[in-house]
Amino acid sequence: MPVAAIQMDVTQAPVGERLGRATELVAEAAAGGAQLVVLPELFNTGYEFHPRNYALAEPMGGQTVTWMRAQAARHNIHLAGSLALLEQSDIYNTALLLAPDGRFWRHDKIHIVLWERAYFREGDRITIADTDLGKLGLMVCSDTLRPDLWAQYAGRVQGMLLMFSPGGGDADLVFPDGWRRNYWEFEKTVFPPDPAFDPDDDDGLFAQIAWMPVPMVSASQAGLLRTRLPKLAALLQMSNLADRASQASETWLEMPLPMATVITEPEQGWLAQGTTGGDGVILAEIALADEPPQPKGPQPKMYVGEDHVAKLVRPLYRAGVRRQWGRR
Predict the structure, then answer these.
(1) How far apart are CA 12 and CA 92, in angstroms?
(2) Which terminus of the chain faces fewer neighbouring Cβ atoms within 10 Å, N or C?
(3) What is the per-residue pLDDT for 130?
(4) Can you tell me the distance from the alpha carbon of 59 to that of 306, in angstroms, rounded to the nearest whole number?
(5) Where are the alpha helices (DSSP H) in the chain?
(6) Whole-structure pTM value
(7) Residue 219 pLDDT exceeds 60
(8) What are the structural domains, with CATH classification, of the chain?
(9) Distance CA 204, CA 112 (A)
(10) What is the secondary structure of 191-211 as a DSSP string?
């Protein structure tokens, strides 16, 4: 089955502009023969920790989901991607998989980590999409850090679709005077110090995919994430950088995102991969087993750390949602 993973630059831009870029990328993937196309996490907005995120949430009948339905029908493809979805009084980081005939499957990101907890609430269940192509599992970014979620999918799916704005790796706090400090040196949290997308890592997501064993289509944001960080002053006070806490509102996090646009198969390994920057499309052919394969031996262990940042920013979520949507 021909499939495609789409990479998009991480920098936030107006929804109309990003959907315009995505339209061209989806058309390129479809022209290449792809029957299944996967877009990144929050593909319609880009990625930044900013109060504007509350206003960027859309309902199921909004601009982005309407666009996804139209693209799936126009190109006769299954199309997946993640967006900020407004449902009643909550905002979810939701992965949708749209079929050409209008059917859809929804997965609300379960493992909300770090500053994301200021903008989203967590989902509570995995999603297995029983499509005409096969049974496909959906995960969004840090869901992949949860071994219990991999275990729930194992033996029940024929392929995995992943949507990323990957963290980990190099990240610097850049203070107003230009002084830099590596973020991970003082903030030991849910992410391991190395990028998750290391094929030689025996405790990362590739080990889980090999254990399942199923093909994987992973689409990601790419480029340089440059953002302010809510509650950074409180975090600095808790660290050995307390003397810098007064500069928190003028401090940036700069993080080059590791390459995470990949198509893999259990037997052949990496079939295609993206780059570390810019928009683009990768294409490959994968083979889905007739039935969901059973895991190979015991499940590999995974690094799971304490996420005190999410606890710190969690109160911001309800205040932000009420401020933006409460009167409506």
Answers:
(1) 18
(2) C
(3) 98
(4) 32
(5) 15-31, 53-56, 63-75, 147-153, 183-186, 205-211, 232-237, 308-325
(6) 0.95
(7) yes
(8) 2-167+186-223+255-311 (3.60.110.10)
(9) 18
(10) S-SS-S--TT-TTSHHHHHHH
